[in-house]
Model the fold of this input.
Amino acid sequence: MVKGRPPSAPQGARTRPQAPKPSQAAAGPRPARNGGRAGRPGASSGEESPTDDAAIPRARPPRRKDEAHPDDRSRGASKRGGAERAARRGDADRGGAERAAKAGDADRGGAERAAKAGDAERGARKNRGAAARSSSAARGKAGRAPRPAGEAKGRPLPERAAGALGGGQQQRRKRAEPRRVEEADASLDLPRRSGRVALVGRPNVGKSTLLNAALGHPLAIVSPTPQTTRDAILGVVHHGPAEIALLDTPGLHRPRTELGRVMNQAAREAARSADVIVFVTEAPDPARLPRRVKEGEDGPPFAPHPGDLALLADLGSEAPVVFVLNKVDRVRDKARLLPLLDAFAKIRDFAAIVPISALREDGVQRVLDEVAKLCPERAWGFAPDELTDRPTRFFAAEYVREQILRATKAEVPHASAVQIERYVEPTGDGALHIDATIHVERPGQKKILIGAAAEQLKRIGTEARLRIEELVGRQVNLKLWVRVTPEWRESLQTLEELGYNKGETS
Done:
């Protein structure tokens, strides 16, 4: 193991072993302690023996005034070497100082430019603040209600979103807030528009899904079963300065029953009374197309559905039509849809063509943008918080039928209808009481709906009750009965009792 220099010997000087005294020559030389190295005056060794002269370090011999000690010479050389190194370091430091001075000049120039830019930015912010204050003052003079004390400007951040934002981001959000207020005020200064917009198309192309996506609420019932929608259902959307009254219509089809003819009549009446028509169709499902002849080929080009061609020819030319191609998420290669869109564009002069995916809420806002431009300028007819003009009992029947569509198959969904027999809404915070009757055409359909030990009917009632409670915001007591009403779809009188032939389109 490598050891360090003993602390008693000065660094940079070597010591020689001392010669023995003449009186000790007979006894032989006595080894010096501390490893044969002499200690400095006043330094103690590992063992103290005051009676033994050899154990005490010998003092340095006296020297003349003009004589230098070897240790002094070595120390002087060390000092001279250190001075030279210090001088070299000083030169290096002076060079570094010169470079630092040059860098400082550059920094001062950059600081001056940054200061000028900061002054310009502060001036711009001051001008924007003055513009915002003048705009708010003008709104106050126009008779606008003052903001309550302590109320924050703009929409408050959710707690989780506010926690995720850093301090700097929150400050930037506050600085950008007056500009968002000015943009909102600019939209309010635009003339108000209001129009009835009919969603028209074949069954099961996604009209109800589009309505729900536009409203941001699952108002209309949806299911994989075609002809789910039987009535024209209105949903009100306020989009900027425009009030859009969307009418979800039954799918136009070739009717086989009197109910089918009534549904087609409701859809056509909604289209005739609309200010704007949104024609909805779906992208072809590649899984249902013929198989490709060879691997690597793109398959046959997409072509318009014959039913779409017949409906477009039957729409007329009074109202502007916005063409919406729904379910584009089915096709991975979107370039395959271009020939289909081009083929539809040659059939009719559409006001706009918008491909969307209503299920994923992709492109829905663009549809509203295009429709809002086409709505006529007129005053709004609904309050901003109104969602529809249908009563709650209508949707109670629809939500029961929705669960029937999801729980059953074959002929049961089309042969069932729901009628509200009793609807009692309490004045306080009590529960809403609803009694509903499910009409079917055959006893076998009744057995399917009830199920073993009435489990099927209980499951339908539970799911429908939860759906109604979500709509009304209170507890609901729902009771269901199943009744066989033969051939109810062919009787105009029964259809009128069930509410399907009243000529209502809103």
User: Anything to note?
Assistant: Residues 1-74, 131-186 have pLDDT under 50 and may be disordered.
